[in-house]
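Protocol step 4 of 5: obtain the predicted structure for the target chain.
Materials: sequence only (see below). No template structures provided, no constraints applied. The aim of this step is simply to have a reference model before the mutagenesis design in step 5. Sequence pasted as it appears in the construct record:
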Amino acid sequence: MAFKSPHVSLVSFSIEIGADATTNVMQIETDLHLNTRHPSYDAAAIERLVRDAQSYLAGNADQITQIRLVSNRSGQT
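Step 4 output (structure tokens):
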């Protein structure tokens, strides 16, 4: 089942390989501003996105251990 949630433009999965561990990552591209100082920052929308991603992983992706949010919006300062 595909992950769907408001404000999501792309979902990809990756593996990060470190000296001590390998981590599976679900990367979510969003149109939300992630910088808390930006005037358009929407904490409630971000919290919903994180909850949706965590719920998705609980039922669909046993090996994923991290969620990464990436904003595709410019002007993050």
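Step 4 remarks: The longest helix spans residues 43-60. The chain is about 25% helix and 35% strand.
Proceed to step 5.
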